[in-house]
Amino acid sequence: MRGHRGLVVVLAGLALLALVPPVAGMLNQPFYIDLLRRVMILAIAAVSLDLILGYGGMVSFGHAAYLGIGSYSVAVMAFYGIHSGPLQWLVAIGASALVALAIGSVSIRTSGIYFIMITLAFTQMLYFLGISVDEYGGDDGMGLKRLSQFGNLIDLGDPVAFYYLVLAILVLTLVIVHRLVHSRFGMVIRAAKSNEARTRAIGFSPYAYRLVAFVIAGAICGLAGALYVNHTKYLSPHIMHWTISGDIMFMVILGGMGSTAGPVAGALVLLVLENLLSGWTEHWQIIFGPFLVLVVLFAKRGLAGWLAGGRHG
Amino acid sequence: MLEVRDLETAYGRSQVLFGVSFTVEAGTVVTLLGRNGMGKTTTVRSVMGMMRPRSGQVLFEGKPLTGLPSYRVAQAGLGLVPEGRQVFPNLTVVENLIATAATRRQQSKQWTLQRVFQFFPNLAERRGNYGNQLSGGEQQMLAIARALMTNPRLLILDEATEGLAPLIRHDIFRSIEQLKAEGLSILVIDKDLRALTRVAHRHFVLEKGRVVWSGTSVELEANADIQHRYLGV
Q1: Considering only CB atoms, which chain B residues are within 8 Å of A258?
Q2: Could you count the other beta carbons within 10 Å of the beta carbon of residue A149?
């Protein structure tokens, strides 16, 4: 988000998000708090994917894996009676980072179509693992009996409090990713995306840099997973299905790859459209599909390019 | 400083270099000359570890570089300004310079952002622009500046003035002369013979993957036969 216009758009968007709970309260439509909370949680996942996809050129088609790891961390700990929120969420972040380290250390050695396929394959493995573990509900999943507990600090059972917590985490994620991308670490990542051979010839091996970015993205997405399972109050292996990975990727492409806040707009448009269209017809994807095709064809920099003007890269 | 011995390199089954040998002494400017397709760029790529030579040796300050990956070669102190410039289009001028900057050795005068901008004032004016928003000449200066920011011991310029307007070529050669005056060792590949004989100490002429002649600028200027036969002047 270089330039004032981009920043103004982002701040205005965040201000609007902050206004949702009081407005929804006034209109007596709590549904919108729920919808936008879901939007923001998946936006966090999309922003984390954009770090490696938009800036790093790593087309990970398995980002749903970390939503899953985050969700399972919370739900499984709750299953064994550990309800401490800080502990659950730390484990969610740590476990996702570890899984990302394992997947990344293998997949980053490849590139292009092989990278896409390997990340997809790993996530499918985790998906089928989730389905096959009967103890945690297998294919059906299981309910989250108690939400993550934060003592007197915050009660996730209060929809408005939970909403603002998610908003705060979203803002924090945006700040972290923005600073990361404009740090020297981020410059090397972006340089390696545009010209890997050149980056090597000038003295950098991109592997370690990419792996670190991959792990950070996984960790952030793992936190989104911990939020998501609290949001739905239900654990389902379906969160790791490849179509979810595809959804997150669509959010990034729709919002604008390589723009820090673009994926938030992407998540908003995708989920709100899905909501509107599916209320209108059961076959909403017939309308949604061509829409995405048009966006990819005519708005290559996504919504961010359209809203903020100047930014590219 | 740089010693290349009997380098043989092939693209698949077609061999391009048939035993290239040359040396660059510390603090000198050396050129590789020759018509297109004679192996100049392949020589550079082999030195830089971007291609693996079939046989031969590359020694830098006495240490072998042969077979090392290119990032290790660069870390040893070779700064390449590649053919076609290849600045990072998705990074700003400042980011292009900082992203890969390095101070790996103690030097009396380190290259910093400030010093690079003094050296190329045009770049300072365009510091916030993206790599793909620069003119060809500005991109070339950025490519040189980027290499300087790695504080190299030896700067390699591969066709640094190709496709640029005469005035800008002149600017670039003046920059090279300034760098030479500071005592930087430079290996230049270019087609501008007049400018090269003015700047360089020593020349190596390549013909079909071999060094067929070498000598000083005075010797080259005096030798119309070499100029005509191998350089098409």
Answers
A1: 90
A2: 18
